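Q: Got a minute? One more chain.
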Amino acid sequence: MLGKPGCHLCDEALAVIERVAADLDIPYEVRDITCSDQEEKDEYWEKIPVTFIDGAQHDFWRVSESRLRAALAGK
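A: Always. Here it is, folded:
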């Protein structure tokens, strides 16, 4: 997940990601967009939180638990 500190949508997304990752025993990474390069900021700043699966953008703004589970089911 790409987010930033103090972002309530990021906190909500992270709660979903943590729950799903724990249930499926899948690791996850959280990155702070404020530490990103300018290109990444330009692309994702207005979309955070942004979730990625295997490096590909999966979702932004809100994380659907059912959609995330379905996408990770085969992992």
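A: The chain has three helices and four strands.
Q: Perfect, thanks.
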